[in-house]
Amino acid sequence: MIIKNYKNKTVLKGMSLKEIEQWCQSQELSNFRAKQIYQWMYRHGVSEADNMKNLSKDLQKKIDESCVLETLKIEKIDESNTEPTQKILFKTIDNHFIEAVSMLEGNRHTICISSQIGCNVDCDFCATASMGLIRNLMTGEIIDQAIAIRRIVKTPITNVVFMGMGEPFLNYNQVLSAAHILHSHDGFDLGAKRITISTAGIVPKIEKLIEDGYKYKLAISLNATEDDTRQKIMPLNRNWPIKSIIKSASRFAARKGHNVMFEYVLLKGINDTAEDAVRLANLIQGIDSKVNVIPYNETDGKYQRPSTETIEQFLKILNKNKKGFRILVRWSKGEDINAACGQLAVTNI
Ligand code: SF4
C-alpha cells in the first residue's frame, strides 16, 4: 500500500516536479509555483507552508489546509560512543517505525536510508528480516529521512546509500523517484554517483535499471560463492542464482562509467574459507567492480564474525587472486547502537 492521500489531504512531499505541476494546475496555479514549492520542500527542507516565503498567504493557507508536507516524526536518536555515527528512529503518519543512519568520516557524510517498513526477503543473517514486510515506503518518507538528517547534522550530506531497512528493488518506483529528488539540482543536488542502490539480487530489477539508463550506483549483496550456501543464507537465491546475478552485474558494469559494488558479509564457518576467496575472485574477474568485505556484526548469536586471523587470510587470498576489481574492507560503523550493516530492526521502542 502506498499512501497518496492522508485524511483527505494530498501528500505533496515526495512528488516530482511534474506531479506538483499537475497539482498546481488542478488549483489553477502556474508551473512557476510548482518549481517554488519543489525547491522549498527539497532544497530547503521546509515542512510548514508558512515558511515558503515567496508564496502568497492564500497559497500558503491552501497548502497548509490541503497537503501533507511532512511524513515522518523523529522518535529517538542514538549516538555512538565510539564514532560520529547516529541512528535515527522515525515514526510514520500511520504509526510504524523505520530507521536511518548518519555516518561522518572527515568531510564525507554518508546516510543510509530505508526503503520499506520491514522486509520479506528473509536473509537469514539480517535483523530487519525478523520484522517481515509491513509496507513499502512512499517517496516522501524516503526523502524525509534525508531531510531530517540534514537538519540534525551540520555537515552536508555527500553520499546516500539505500541500504537501510528493506529491499529497494521491491519498491523500485518510489526508490527511483526519491533518487531523482536527491540528484535534482533543485532538490539535494547530489551527483548520481553519490547515490547507491543496494539489492539482495533481484535480477529483473537490475536489468530494469540498466534499461532505464540511470547513472546511480549499484551494490549487490553477494555473500556466498556457491548456490547451496547462498540459498541457505539468502533464500531468494532460488529465484535468481549466482550465475544470473553475475551475468546482470556484468551487463551493468559493461557500460562506460558504471562499476558494481559486490557486498560480501563474512560469516564464520559459512563463507569465509580460502576456497571461498578463490571462488569469489574467479566469479567476478573481469567485471569493473569493487568487493566490499564486511566482517559480520553479530545480532542474535545465530551467526558469528570470523576471527581476525580468518578475515586477514580471506583478504590475502582474495587480493592474491584478484583480476580487475578492487577490494575494500568495511568494519561497519555504529555497532554499539545497532546501526551497523544488517542490524536495523525496530525492536527497542
Ligand atoms: S539484508 Fe536487505 S534484503 Fe535481506 S532481509 Fe535484510 S533488509 Fe531485506
Structure description:
- Helix content is 32%, strand content 22%.
- It is elongated, with a radius of gyration of 21 Å.
- The longest helix has 14 residues, at 139-152.
- It has helices at residues 17-26, 31-42, 57-66, 139-152, 172-183, 203-212, 227-233, 242-253, 274-284, 308-321; strands at 5-6, 9-11, 67-68, 72-79, 85-92, 97-105, 108-112, 116-118, 133-136, 159-162, 195-199, 217-221, 260-266, 289-295, 325-329.
- The protein has 2 domains: 5-68, DNA polymerase, domain 1 (Orthogonal Bundle), CATH 1.10.150.530; 72-337, TIM Barrel (Alpha-Beta Barrel), CATH 3.20.20.
- It is α/β, with parallel strands linked by helices.
- The model has no long low-confidence stretch (mean pLDDT 93).
- Helix 10 (308-321) links the parallel strand 14 (289-295) and strand 15.
- The chain contains 10 helices and 15 strands.
- The protein binds iron/sulfur cluster.
- The site of iron/sulfur cluster (SF4) has 12 residues, from loops.
List the helices and strands and how they pair.
Elements: E1 5-6, E2 9-11, H1 17-26, H2 31-42, H3 57-66, E3 67-68, E4 72-79, E5 85-92, E6 97-105, E7 108-112, E8 116-118, E9 133-136, H4 139-152, E10 159-162, H5 172-183, E11 195-199, H6 203-212, E12 217-221, H7 227-233, H8 242-253, E13 260-266, H9 274-284, E14 289-295, H10 308-321, E15 325-329
Parallel strand pairs: 2-3, 7-10, 10-11, 11-12, 12-13, 13-14, 14-15
Antiparallel strand pairs: 1-2, 4-5, 5-6, 6-7, 8-9
Helix pairs in contact: 1-2, 4-5, 6-8, 9-10
